[in-house]
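Quick one:
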Amino acid sequence: MTKLDRSLASDVAMVLAAGIGKRMRPLTATRPKPLVRVNGRALIDHSLDKLVEAGVSRAVVNVHYLPGQIEAHLAQRSAPAFAVSDEREALLETGGGMVKALPLIAADPFFCLNSDNVWLDGPQNVFAALSAAWDPAQMDALLLLVSHARAFNYTGRGDFHLDPLGRISRRKPGRVAPFIYTGIQIVSQRLLRDAPQGAFSTGVLWDRAIAEGRLYGISHNGLWFEVGAPEMIAPTEAALQRG
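Output:
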């Protein structure tokens, strides 16, 4: 295991792994999306391996769909140390999942990332890059964004704009935005204050932070791959093998 990098903003990450993965059917008919294999590795291992490489020592993983398979898979790994946030009874979405997991996370701030992320780092690994830009006095969350030119398999209109200071605003309806959310962020406990009960999207909290001028982003200097459907796997593997 990589020795902890003391320059990181946190040594704890939440990995979101509770989704049903409908777009990935039929591959997810009998296994959860985080265990779909891309380039010889389960999707969740791509995320966990990057955390270990960066020096993040602990992960909290939420589970809902076919949770036993994910738990068994995690138990076979030597690192990072992990805890499971159990959402078997009800899927809580991204925001509700973070709120439920807070007692296990026990860190401020913490990294949060999707379990189906695949990316190649630029000159600096993404967790170090986010940490270098993190300013808790100004930020409730700091999102890793990627330009369309660096996003493989992505065909949408983008998600966000960045102003010269790095503050985020949302794409306007019917328009195109230059940046796509990668599914990776630093989250402060402040972002989660007075959160709704039950299932809700992190977007609810982002919107409040945008209104308060406290949602920021940085642009990813490497490559990012959307792997949301079976037909995206082969081109992703080809690109990864080219390096």
